[in-house]
Amino acid sequence: MRHYSLRTLLAASTLLAALPAHAETVRWSVVTSGEKVGFVEADEQGSTVAISYDVKNNGRGPTTTEEIELGADGLPVRWAIDGTSTFGSEVRERFARDGQTVRWTDSTGTQEREQAATALYIAQNGSPWALGLYARALLKDEDQRMAALPGGELQLEALGEAQVQGTTYRAFSISGIDLSPELILLDPQGRLFARIDTDGATVREGSEGAVPELTELATRLTAERFAALQKRFAHTLDGPMRIRNVRVFDPKAGTLGDPVSVVVSGERIAGIHPLDAPATPGEIVVDGQGGTILPGLHDMHAHVSPQSALLYLAAGVTSIRDMGNDNAVLDGLMERIEDGTVAGPRIVRNGFLEGRSSYSARNGIIAASEAEAVEAVRWYAARGYWQIKIYNSMNPDWIPAVVREAHRLGMGVTGHIPAFTNADTMIAAGYDEVTHINQLMLGWVLDPQEDTRTPLRLTAMRRTADLDLSSAQVQQTIEAMAAHDIALDPTAVTLELLMLSRDGQPSPAVANYIDHLPIALQRRRRQGIAPIETLADAAAYEGSFVKIKELIKRLHDRGVRLLPGTDDATGLSLHRELQIYGEAGIAPAEVLRLGTLAPEVYMGRDQNLGSVERGKYADFLLLPGNPLEDLRELHRIAMVVKDGTIYFPSEIHAAFGVKPFAEAPAIPGLE
């Protein structure tokens, strides 16, 4: 691919400005993991555009219509979006521009501004069609930058040309919409051909066969971006590093020690030395200023990408368990992390195994028979995956055979509870672990014929608000888990986000730090997710989350192993997951053990990871404050060390539009 000069871009913008009004209907297919899961249709009639957008992947997705009126400058003067969001909540968004006055209504409320300069409105619920609109507007701008509404700035970057099925397209990135830039291809006429990603594309209808090469292109462009970020953010020292005047949290004892010095040499911890022990020649001394050294955090429910891999490090998460991904993409990412090309945590792979249905999730391997499911287990085992993760559409009758083969080959089995069964049955079939606390609870409130391949696996949680956790049914499940050492990966923070988000209010899942997030993400986190039609619905979801906290505490007290995970991609959500455990009544020291050492013990890696001790890998984080006094201190990370490489969250977060939480320590020899 070649890169464009400013002269070339300006010439292109002149051509675009001269394009005549036209009338046409264009369709794009939404393809994920090799399968079509939705469409975009845009009926363009001169200055008006009518758009239909529908996606159904994994039993969920948005369904919206848009009506757009464009002004003489090609920018919207009217924009109306109606329909439902991914999980079924109502969408009713409006934008209007009259002269210098702009008004819009979205989930956060209604705003009005006087806008002297041109600014692009970023739709909260817009379809991928909007990316072509933004690109055309940015191409007309001299420096390809424009102010954005409600805030921030959009920037277009030319990435060169790409040959797709014999046609030359131009690749661009658009940054400023969210945490990660959008990657798009424009056709020779300057119109949107495709939005591309590492696991799929939204591509012009008739070109679905090009998706494999489009995902390959997205993978390469993404790898190049994150390789450049690694060069900026990964800091290494020429000699040992002595972090003086810090207190080390011991997850085994649950205590914070006296002030000491932590010494790192290469990728290992060389020792925990007395505070008055002198530095030796060649050491780099860092003043820890009385802060806390905490072992690296572990997210036990991730679906990692190059972006989330870097954000995990910024959040102090040095190890994750990937619970389902595009297998080839994940392997490529792990290779780049291990050779130092890109930044990321240590990754343990679980093999995603789904059954074939119209609701199938497009990850890992989808099996259409018991024999195919068992063969998938063998495939994963031969490639070193740690566990099998079962998903919603798997036939429950196949689980015993899957479990037998997995156990025979040395693998564990975890996952969702397949539709039309319950946790008790899956535990009896040989599950070693249950994923998501709602998957555990639904068996206590659902009729066996109700279908949890749909968003019902969320919405039915309303029924648990009045659940008696002392009932015989609940106690039977808890006792079975305790007796058979069945672990639970609760992902409580995701349930909090899904059930307690309300239009116009900061979601409790991010309320502690929402002002640090980019404006687009702030808007999403002030938007309802679960459909709420009445005040009773809202109260039921709130009551359900109270029950979730109560159940977490009961399970912990009974000795059921809890594995903190998030099913999210920002890293910061793991901090909230742990805070929820504290709010449930688990002591802070125990919460921190659950988030550091406990996963490594579970996975048999605690000889090298999970605590800050001499000879272990140098995976830890430096906090200015004391998380034992307030678990919200977990956000304020000054420095993260992984394999002896130093990362400053303040640098990483700034690159993603996130306001930093803490200043980096001064390290001699580093700018």
State the shape.
globular
Distance between the termini: 34 Å
Average pLDDT value? Answer: 94
Q: Give the strand order, joined by hyphens, for the main sheet.
A: 8-7-6-5-4-3-2-1-15-14-13-12-11-10-9
- The stretches of 5 or more residues where confidence is low (pLDDT under 50) are 1-20
Strand content of the residues, in percent? 25-35%
What characterizes the major β-sheet? 15 strands, mixed
Radius of gyration: 26 Å
Seen as an oligomer or otherwise, the chain set is single chain
Helix content: 25-40%
Compute the number of strand runs.
Answer: 31
Enumerate how many helices there are, as a single number: 18
Main structural class: alpha+beta
Task: Summarize the SSE layout with pairings.
Layout: H1 6-17, E1 23-32, E2 35-45, E3 48-55, E4 63-70, E5 76-84, E6 90-98, E7 101-106, E8 109-114, E9 119-121, H2 129-140, E10 145-149, E11 153-164, E12 167-175, E13 182-186, E14 192-197, E15 200-204, H3 211-233, E16 241-250, E17 255-256, E18 260-265, E19 268-274, E20 284-295, E21 297-302, H4 306-314, E22 317-322, H5 327-338, E23 346-355, E24 365-367, H6 370-382, E25 387-390, H7 399-408, E26 412-415, H8 423-429, E27 433-435, H9 437-442, H10 456-459, H11 472-483, E28 487-489, H12 492-500, H13 519-524, H14 535-557, H15 572-583, H16 588-595, H17 597-602, E29 620-623, E30 639-642, E31 645-647, H18 649-655
Parallel strand pairs: 9-10, 16-20, 21-22, 22-23, 23-24, 23-25, 25-26, 27-28
Antiparallel strand pairs: 1-2, 1-15, 2-3, 3-4, 4-5, 5-6, 6-7, 7-8, 10-11, 11-12, 12-13, 13-14, 14-15, 16-17, 16-18, 18-19, 20-29, 29-30, 30-31
Helix pairs in contact: 4-18, 6-7, 12-14, 15-16
